[in-house]
Design brief:
The protein is of the alpha+beta class and 565 residues long. 57% of the residues lie in helices and 12% in strands. The longest helix is centred in the N-terminal third of the chain and has 37 residues, at 80-116.
């Protein structure tokens, strides 16, 4: 490409400021979604780990109640490896049952995501559950079975036959309880990380939805048509069609403004080129500006604010001097605080010298999450170089009726012309927000699921701990411990796990949020509001999970507890 560019420069010196940039096609197609998909994959992994920790906790608690059974099996000759294999097999059965239920649920969710997901994601509409996905789900389930069955299997391999056979009741097992508590802390930490990520994305999406795009999308309809070169090969034919269309469309009832352009704001990428005032020394490296080709009525249809001078008029045609309208950012870049009206600039991409006749407000044409770029607007009737034309019309009635009327004008002028991509500008803005909106909602779903799993995990660990400490709690009550003291003891144990999980989770979330910088808009990676909200939400859910075991501990009858043991 460098050799080709050098040859082009030798043949045409006007291209001396151009350079070629080569990127892999897959990177170009996926660059806007790669980070989002990676984040979703990480969230899925966190959720799977949460589920594994939960099941491992349940199996550990169940294993305590089965120690007498395992002791009998060992006494009858079962080897430790056989006992461990039994525990792993039970985990595998649970995982495969969960996999089957999950696949059925995924069939419904995939349809929902394909139907309502962002259209900007490449290949989303072709997404299906195929053999590769099924294979991945089965492999993930087997790995989950191994993860959840390791701790119970190790416990079975350390079977103490005599102690377990003579056991009466659920004696405390400090080692097993510590493992369960560690798993609960890990669940809370993972839930915090996902919650913080979701909170940052929700805050970012809220900021994006409040951004002023630089135009008023309400009551504006858009559509595109295409002028084939076979019948519109010359500039005169294209200008004639544009003039006839604008004249007929503006006569329609219900349309207050009609314009045309080479694309739709937020929907089409603008071209760029070098630009510089002709009355100033030319620098070695020229600044660049995006270029949009539009007709009169374009700015009025979008209600872009005119800051100085004027916009295009029907008189700015092929026989009139070349004129240009620039946005505020380009005016500041080229002229700083000087008045640009009447100044002349040389633009490389349109090719020529233009008189600046107006300055308009900045618009976020590339994307809602992208700062406005220096942009110049060239009269499409003076430079009709494009075959594909976009129509923008402001209406005071229904959008469907306006689009039907505009379609009728195109059909009247040339019945063979296509009329496609009919939509409102509000839909265009909504599509530009589709990816961050979907990402925020999906992460929120993962976060709420993780929060539920973490609450279940804390509840399970505390319930098991209360069951193991029944005799101890009965003795405490017998020697005078008040119900409030018992409540404080159990809640303190649960809150200690939650506090440790919060500390670890916030540390991990702070490190993870640094990787989200490219997905956030107007949000710092450490948002105090998000962190405080996550802490309060998790504290409420965890307190609710702690209350039931604590109240059960308060109702333990000391006589019954001691007699049971």
């Amino acid at each position: 490409m460098n050799d080709i560019q050098a040859q082009i420069e030798r043949e045409n010196p006007d291209y001396r400021d151009w350079r070629a940039s080569v990127v892999p096609l897959v990177d170009e197609v996926l660059k806007s979604t790669r980070a989002s998909v990676t984040l979703l994959a990480a969230a899925v992994g966190f959720l799977l780990l949460l589920a594994c920790a939960n099941v491992a906790n349940l199996l550990l608690a169940r294993g305590v109640g089965r120690r007498r059974e395992l002791g009998v099996r060992a006494a009858l000759g079962a080897r430790q490896g056989r006992l461990a294999a039994q525990m792993l097999t039970e985990s595998l059965v649970l995982a495969l049952l969960g996999c089957a239920a999950g696949i059925l649920l995924a069939l419904l969710l995939v349809r929902l995501i394909v139907t309502h997901g962002p259209p900007t994601v490449p290949g989303l509409q072709e997404t299906t559950i195929d053999l590769r996905v099924l294979g991945f789900a089965i492999v993930a389930s087997v790995l989950a079975a191994v993860l959840t069955g390791v701790a119970p299997a190790l416990s079975a391999m350390r079977a103490r036959v005599n102690a377990w056979l003579t056991e009466r009741g659920a004696a405390p097992a400090a080692g097993g309880l510590r493992v369960q508590q560690a798993l609960a802390v890990g669940q809370v930490a993972l839930a915090v990380a996902v919650l913080v990520t979701a909170g940052l994305l929700i805050e970012s999406f809220r900021n994006l939805s409040r951004v002023d795009p630089g135009f008023r999308p309400e009551h504006v309809v858009t559509a595109k048509t295409y002028l084939p070169d076979t019948r519109y090969s010359g500039e005169a034919e294209r200008v004639a069609f544009t003039d006839r269309f604008l004249r007929e469309a503006r006569a329609l009832p219900g349309l207050t403004a009609v314009g045309m352009g080479d694309g739709v704001p937020l929907g089409d990428r603008r071209q760029g080129g070098p630009i510089w005032p002709v009355d100033r020394p030319r620098p070695d490296e020229l600044p660049n500006a995006n270029v949009a080709w539009v007709t009169d009525g374009y700015f009025e249809s979008l209600r872009m604010q005119v800051l100085r001078g004027r916009t295009f008029t029907p008189d700015d045609g092929p026989d009139a001097p070349d004129v240009m309208v620039i946005n505020r950012r380009l005016a500041r870049m080229l002229f700083r605080d000087d008045d640009p009206i009447g100044r002349r600039v040389e633009a490389g991409n349109p090719g020529g010298v233009f008189d600046i006749v107006g300055v308009v407000s900045d618009d976020r044409n590339i994307g809602i999450d992208t700062e406005p770029t220096p942009t110049c607007f060239v009269s499409l009737r003076q430079r009709p170089r494009f075959s594909e034309l976009a129509v923008l019309a402001r209406t005071d009635g229904a959008a469907e009726a306006a689009l039907s009327s505009v379609r009728g004008v195109v059909r009247q002028l040339d019945p063979e012309l296509p009329f496609f991509e009919t939509q409102t500008m509000e839909q265009v803005v909504s599509v530009s927000l589709a990816t961050p909106r979907s990402l925020a909602w999906l992460l929120s779903g993962f976060a709420l699921s993780g929060l539920l799993l973490a609450g279940i995990g804390v509840f399970g660990v505390l319930s098991h701990a209360v069951g193991q400490r029944t005799q101890e709690i009965g003795v405490r009550v017998a020697i005078g411990a008040s119900p409030g003291r018992i409540l404080t003891m159990v809640l303190g144990q649960g809150l200690a796990q939650i506090g440790a999980g919060l500390v670890i989770g916030f540390a991990g979330a702070a490190a993870l949020s640094q990787l989200l910088a490219g997905l956030l808009f107007g949000v710092r990676s450490f948002s105090t509001v998000t962190y405080v909200a996550v802490a309060m939400l998790l504290a409420l859910i965890s307190m609710a999970a702690c209350l039931a075991p604590a109240r059960r501990a308060m109702r333990i009858d000391p006589a019954t507890a001691v007699r049971t043991e």
